[in-house]
Amino acid sequence: MCQYIETIRVIDGCACNLAYHEQRMNRTRKEMLGLTEPLHIADLLKSVSLPMECSKLRFVYDKEGIHDITCTPYICKEINSLHLVYDNNISYPYKSTDRSALNELKKQQGDCDEILIVRDNHLTDTSYTNIALYDGEQWFTPSTPLLCGTMRQRLLDCGLLQEREIMVSDIPNYQYISLFNAMISLGEVILPVDKIK
């Protein structure tokens, strides 16, 4: 059975970005599981004690509903280098428990801290984050992500990110790259682009 995941940042006892997570979950349920009745994450949270420290709330869902709910302290990985890996057939449009294609690409990481996946010479994502590049004035995120993350969508809606096509050959036009996802804010994990190998 296909299973999908939501990972939500909890800080000061509050679940962040909830509307975006709920929207993605219900879209996935409709498109992949054929379920049109929306679920409300807030209802689920009534039975979960949310800690005050920064934590990762994670749950799995499928045709049977929501299960495997965990809430654990979150520590951000230190990322100092990225390795470009190429796969023109990679596809990960839904946040699924099946990460086998991503895990295969991770094997090419070498001595770098993380991979940056390239599809048809376009930058996409790392194995676990969306990305944005800074040109000295503005942050841009690739218009070709593997997964349209909830934080990515929120940043686009707020005007803090602009979407554009970014090719491998465009990397020298930028100064910095930032990795971000539901747990990591834009600018929290940031590297000079010369750390992309």
From TrEMBL:
SUPFAM superfamilies: D-aminoacid aminotransferase-like PLP-dependent enzymes. The keyword Lyase applies. One of its GO terms (molecular function) is lyase activity. It holds the Pfam family Aminotran_4. InterPro entries: Aminotrans_IV, Aminotransferase-like, BCAT-like_C, BCAT-like_N. Keywords: Lyase. The keyword Protein transport does not apply. This is 4-amino-4-deoxychorismate lyase. It comes from Prevotella jejuni.
